[in-house]
Amino acid sequence: MRRASTPASPPPPREKLYQAEDAAIVGAEVHRASAGYTGSGYVDYVHTSGDFIEWNIAADTGGTYRLGFRYALGSGVALTVTLLAAD
Ligand SMILES: [Ca+2]
């Protein structure tokens, strides 16, 4: 008797964590005063405009990847942030 094969489940997603303080930082500053950050600090936008963080990420293979983005904002402060992705 031949048994039906079970389709192989996809491999679990591989996760990589990219810290802001390790990226290219323009205008902003690395700080450590506020608790709750991961890595060796966090990047604080200190100017009203023009500050940015740039990660250069090389994927192992082509395909679709999911991106998560974690940030915090101090109370009483409004900040508009734009997240851009390019290939
Ligand atoms: Ca960090």
Helix content: under 10%
Bound molecules: calcium ion
Report how far the terminal alpha carbons are from each other.
Answer: 50 Å
List unreliable stretches of 5+ residues: none
Task: Enumerate the strands of the largest sheet in spatial order, edge to edge or round the barrel.
Answer: 1-4
What summary fits the major beta sheet?
2 strands, antiparallel
What is the approximate shape?
Answer: elongated
What is the residue-averaged pLDDT? 87
Count the beta strands. Answer: 4
Alpha carbon gyration radius:
19 Å
Keywords:
single chain; 87 residues; two-stranded antiparallel sheet; 4 strands; elongated; mainly beta; binds calcium ion
Describe this structure in words.
By secondary structure, the protein is an all-beta fold. The chain has a domain at 20-54. The protein contains no helices and four strands. The strands form two sheets. It has a two-stranded antiparallel ribbon with strand order 1-4. Strands 2-3 form a two-stranded antiparallel sheet. The chain is elongated, with a radius of gyration of 19 Å. 3% of the residues are buried. The model has no long low-confidence stretch (mean pLDDT 87). Calcium ion is lined by residues 19-21, 37-39, 41-42.
